[in-house]
Amino acid sequence: MKKKILFINFGGLGDEILFLPSIISVKKEFPDSEITLVLEARSRGITSLTNIIDETLFANIKGKRKYLELLKLLFKIWTKQFDIVVSSGSNKFISIFLFLTFIKKRYGYDTGKLSKILLTKSVKLNKNQYAVNMYHDLVRPLTNIITELPQINIEKKQTEPNTILIHPGVSLLSIRKNMIKTISANIWAEVIEKLANCGKKVILAGGPDDKETIETILKTVPEEKFVNMYGKTKNLRELAELIARSEVFICSDSAPLHIATALGVRTFAIFGSTDDKKLIPPNGKITPIKAEGCTCSLRPCLWEKRQTTCETLECLKISSEYIVHSVLK
Asked: Which residues are CB-neighbours of 64 under 8 A, at least 6 positions away?
């Protein structure tokens, strides 16, 4: 019998990519199932990277009317008659929400006694692991199949020799919330020029959120030093195809990092306040670049220890020389 399965995962695009292996494993267990994903509208680009999702539903849970949004979401869910629901998130309200969906089989994280009562199975939340594995724990009651890495529907292209693709940006939302996760635009500009001077074909890419950073780079680095692809990748899929053709990819802790992980591209990622062990797989394909000699006792701090980054940003004092050396050694 065909099952209708609902997945709920609120967060940024990177979170959705890291959540994909859980959906893939369940789809393999129930190949005839219909998959619906509930997410935030800002992450709708995930549908251009995978064909495993049959339908998406959106809810703005970060706004002032979040409870009204959730009520509207409930009405939509009631009309769909799902057989199974799987939800991420550690808020204690989630188990109540899942119970109110009236879906027969409900799976979420163990957030206390109430979750044990209201859910079919409450799963222990283990944040001290690669995020793919953390999410995948949710579906272990449903399947023994394990999908270890994100998988996207982009074919690995023939690599262009000697190319280094640079995507310097992070989400504008994180910047507005004072969650600084990358080096300055001036350091990125120095990296581009130094790599070009070493004979590398440097390609620069970015999205709408990266406008300010890209403009600084364009004012600083002579245009003959690199190939400017900013604004020429019209969507996430085209960016993924560009990453797939690159010999080396350099980026920040952002969604493109997880696309590169899915594609198996050799990647170097800037990490400051976030925990690289939770965001990159231990397969040797992805190398975190972190500040040497950082003495901040809270590092990594973002999310577990504080909700915004500090003013000093000692963890992001990474020189362009160190980045270039890490990439070329």
From this structure: none
Dump strand ranges (E) for the chain: 4-8, 34-39, 55-58, 84-87, 105-109, 121-123, 160-167, 201-204, 226-228, 246-252, 266-270, 286-289
Show the domains of the chain with their CATH numbers.
Answer: 4-139 (3.40.50.2000), 160-328 (3.40.50.2000)
SS (H, E, C) 215-231: HHHHHHCCHHHEEECCC
Q: Say what the pTM is.
A: 0.94
Give, to the nearest 10 degrees, the angle between helix 255-263 and helix 13-29. 40
- Phi, then psi, of 58 in degrees rounded to 5: -120, 145
Q: Is 313 left (phi over 0), alpha (psi -120 to 50) or beta?
A: left
pLDDT tens for the 329 residues of the chain, in order: 789 999 999 999 999 999 999 999 999 999 999 999 999 999 999 999 999 999 999 998 887 888 899 999 999 999 999 999 999 999 999 999 999 999 999 999 999 999 999 999 999 999 999 999 999 999 999 999 999 999 999 877 799 999 999 999 888 778 778 878 899 999 999 999 999 999 999 999 998 889 999 999 999 999 999 999 999 998 999 999 999 999 999 999 999 999 999 999 999 999 999 999 999 998 989 999 999 888 888 888 877 788 888 888 889 999 999 999 999 98
